[in-house]
Amino acid sequence: MRHCNSVFRAQDIWFLLDRDNETKRKLYLANCPICNKEMVLYSCVNDNEEYFEKYYYSGGAIRIKNQLKKDIVSTMLGFKEKYKMPSGFKYGLNKEIKKNGKTIAIEQYACDFWGNKILVKKIENG
Ligand SMILES: [Zn+2]
User: Fold this and answer.
1) Residue 62 C-alpha to ligand 1 middle, in angstroms?
2) Are residues 73 and 98 in the same domain?
3) Residue 68 sits in the same domain as residue 16
4) What is the domain count for the chain?
5) pLDDT tens-digit series, residues 28-83
């Protein structure tokens, strides 16, 4: 998220129910680390497959939160709480474990964009 010429992570993300003309609806919540303004970023994909996003601040942010609360499917913080692990895994990563130049095992990690990593599987080679 952006404010005061800085870029920072959301403190929570709400994953919202689809609507007829909007899917992949998300609300990113944060306070600006520079000016401490409360802000949210609403994003979705509309029925023309176009990505849409809009920022709301202070009172506007609170209004949008109240409006969208009923549409919450899950939240990043709730997910973390529930599974006791970093949430929002976005991609897999394979790491080769080498010994004397030979791959002896492959470790598979699930990673997210917050820099969290969790070992999912270890495959011994040979
Ligand atoms: Zn700011």
Assistant:
1) 16
2) no
3) yes
4) 2
5) 999 999 999 999 999 999 988 999 999 999 999 999 999 999 999 888 887 766 66
Are 59 and 99 within one domain? Answer: no
How much distance in Å is there from the Cα of 70 to the middle of ligand 1? 28
C-alpha 5 – ligand 1 centre gap (Å): 8
Give the residue numbers spanning the domain of 43.
2-83
**Ligand 1 ion: residues within 5 Å (CB):** 3-4, 32, 34-35, 37
Tell me the whole-structure pTM to 2 decimals.
Answer: 0.65
Q: Do 12 and 48 sit in the same domain of this protein?
A: yes
Residues 43 and 70 in one domain: yes
My answer on whether 99 and 75 are in the same domain is no
pLDDT range class, residue 96, cuts 50, 70, 90: confident
- For ligand 1, the distance from its centroid to the CA atom of residue 4, given in whole angstroms, is 4
Residue 19: CB partners within 8 Å, gap ≥ 6?
25
111 CB-near residues (< 8 Å, 6+ apart)? 89, 90, 91, 92, 93, 117
Distance 8 CA to ligand 1 centre (A): 10
pLDDT at 89: 61
**6 Cα–ligand 1 center, Å:** 8
